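Progress report, Aim 2. The chain analyzed during this reporting quarter is listed below.
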Amino acid sequence: MYDVIVVGARCAGSPVGMLLARQGHRVLVVDRSSFPSDAVSTHYIHQAGLLKLREWGLLDEIVAAKTPELKKMHYSYRGIHLNGFAAPVDGLDAVYAPRRRVLDEILVNAARRAGAEVLESFTVTDVVAVEGQVVGIRGREGDGPEREFRATVVVGADGFHSTVAKKVGAELYNVRPAAGFIYYSYYSGLDWGLHHKAGLNEQWFGTWPTNDDLSMLAVICSRAQLKEFRQDVENRFHAVFDDVDPDMGAQLRDQGRREEDFKPMRYPDNYYRRPYGPGWALVGDAGYHKDPYTGWGMTDAFLHGELLADRLHQGLAGERPMDEALAEYHKVRDEESAGVYDFTTTLAPLTELPPFFRVTMDAMSKSQEWTDRMLGLIGGVVEDHEIYAPDALERLYDDAGVPQDQRIYDPAG
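Predicted structure tokens for the chain:
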């Protein structure tokens, strides 16, 4: 009998298992994959996520795996350019984009070291419930016989196709349509650094140096372009770079060498799921998913994983009723993620910015101080009010010399 079973051992599940095991709870973490292994992912970890990794004692392992440090960001959206980097936070002055086979193995091993049992290549087929209360899981290790494990709480950290979420009937809410699709691969021969650029034709590309002296290159296009894209992936991929930044498109053709097959990602609609119920909880994409455009999936997995582990500990330790602790997890998760969710779903269609965001981002682009502040907001280390409070907006507009009749103070205006 376990205190907690965590289904999914990647960037949401392993931190939950690790943190609970460090608190002395008996934890089983299962995953259908074995490690190390890759997963479809944007790789990029924002400063807010890196601060958690450092707090958990794991950031040094990311660095030791020869993951390149990134100290400048080139961000552009339809002609507005923000080139700089967020101010250091507690000495953290770089970001990283590790491959998932590097990151996830570090996380899984950390869960093991903390005392969690980890069962790889185990596919969960069902949850076990008694009178409406989830009490365990059922599944198979490889082609082996069906096995059953029991626990006080089952956590679904098994992605947006979550088996746990489906089996418990976790309802969706605040659903917003998905805007696009992604193709990415890994290239040698390029020394571009970190770029995040959206063009005029509902197209975007991103570049991140990653492990093994490779750069991850990704493109996003609107759903309407998917059929055409699939018919000629190589040329359509290159065409996005040509369209958004012709100079970089030419460099890609002349200097870049693709080292792996293209990986597609047609992601589901943006959504929240109710993240708890009798004997179960959800974390990561299982409970909350947004468009990968802003690259916040892994960082939110760390933040919400710690939040969930803390509330589960309170319930397991008898500090408060479990239902009350998980209800607070639900409330805090939704409140803290609302800004990123709104920002992501506003920009993800890659269409013209709403007037408020266009005038404010254009004003920020005229000042290195405000550029770096905005990049800090994107990275989760600057609060919204530091930019969007009325007095802050007034200073921004004054610094950028925005005429009074062009100033907008209400995002809905």
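Residues 180-265 form a domain with the D-Amino Acid Oxidase; Chain A, domain 2 fold (CATH 3.30.9.100). The mean pLDDT is 96. These observations will guide the mutagenesis work planned for the next reporting period.
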